[in-house]
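Course assignment 3, question 2. Fill in each field.
Student: A.L.
Task: Predict the tertiary structure for the chain below.
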Amino acid sequence: MVTLGKSLAAGLASAIALAVYIALQVGVRLVLLASLTAVVAALRCDVEVLLAGLICWAVGRIPQRYQWSIDRVQLRPSWSDWRGGWSEVVVVGWTWHNAVGFDDEDMLRGTGYLLQIDELEVRLKLSSIWGALREHKSVKVCLLRAHGVRFSTNRNKQGALNLWRNLDLTDDDVNVKCFASQARKFGGLSGGGATVVPLPPIATAATRRVSGFWKTEWGRRPGSEPQSDSSEERDAQLQDAEMRYVEEPIGARTRRPRWGIPLRFDIHQVEVADIQLWVLDLLTLDVHRTSQAMGRDRVRIDLPSLEISRERLEAGDKRRAGAIDGVRGVYLGELVWVLVAELIPPVVMNAPGACSFTAAVATGLAIKDATKMLGAKTVQAAHFIGHNIKEALNLFDLPEPDRRSAPGAALRLKLIRGRQVTRKGRSVNCHAFIELLNSAGSVVDKARSEPQMWTKVPHWGEHFLLGPATSVSDAVRVTLYHRKSRQVVGITSSAREMPERYIGEVTLPLRCVLIQDAVIAEGGEVVGWFELTDDRGLRKGIPCSGEVKLGLQVIGAERLSEASDGGESSDASLL
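Answer field:
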């Protein structure tokens, strides 16, 4: 018995030891497995954040320089036909911020954005992206779902709307872009001057016309002679063209809006939930203290949900259903406009109070803006008539010299219009004082525009001819000044150009106008938007606001001499 008891005790001890050993081994494996899982999760989280940052970096490098921020992007690819082979892409915390410098106060309050989406889920077939890129097919999307959508339009102190500033739309007649350094914009000369660069050939109607830009997908170039093929070849080409990809030229009325993304999306279902809209500033023409003083909750429009089917997305244009090339799908611009059209009826039904209040406030402000504009036009017309009568009665005026026959070159300047031109954040009565300066900074010729009354977006449409210019180091300076209304109409008198009424200026050496590029005809006109800067420090550190659209052309550029050895310092003396 004693021997049996010892044997049982030894066996039990061995069993316990074996159990403890197995438990320790399993525990270690569990710990290792848990650690490995944590590392993979951490790496996955880092990859999601890295992918989000990469997308925002790429978007910030396009010409429009959109300001996006994304918390993370989750990618769940499907490598089989299970669940239909749909992969999932989830974008978390996407914000489309206002453009840099639009309104810093809004950024501090957390309202400096155009669009926010808490979570955007897209179920698509990843394999369809290659076909969309290479063969003009569509990206197959099963579901597009957005939750927590906030669309906020607002104006800054200069009256600019964040929607148009973020989209950065370019006028059709513009062919250059000006980049003014912050040092020049806010006073002082350190940091360099403005840089004028030509736009890409595809950018505007003017650049496409001069450069002859054309894509084969647009068909036969206008004005070109058709190829003399045989009747059999032409029939074969027509039969092949019946079901092929067709793209209308940029600017054509029938061109489908794509908003920079040349891909079609075959979306089966769109679901949007928890929508909030702020559109009061979109319905007004200018910024108003009345609307700015209202709380955001008072003008907010709420909508619980919205669903759009594939049939509704394709309605209105048979090309969306594949009637031309057999490929179904919508472009990004078409998707946005369908969303806008579908939002209006439910918004009116679900939030009639907020809609009525917003519409009433917008109507009142619009009447105020229209009355102000009518008064400004009346005063401008009266001033123009009085100015012409005064000039006609002045019998001692000498005739204008013919600057075309002068020994130097002449500068033709077109003063077109301005935008966000303000002084102390308010509308101005502004006129332009234009000077042609030589390399020493002396005034060679000067001119003055008509005033534009009570406005932040002056429209001049005036032409000037200045000269003679003798060197590429000569410069043209366009300075905007403000005058009080009673001074403009002649009730009181004062100097027209007073330093304390200085708004801002644009100074360009003639070498910036003499650009040789495929998008600018030889000796042709340079048209662009130029930022107002404070090159002479007259605003004493107060930032300038606004831009001026100018057209500049040098007549007789072959008469200009090259810059002297001290050309760069001479340019600095102009400022």
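Instructor remarks: The CA atoms of residues 86 and 356 lie 43 Å apart. Confidence is low (pLDDT under 50) at residues 182-192, 237-242, 564-575.
Grade: pending
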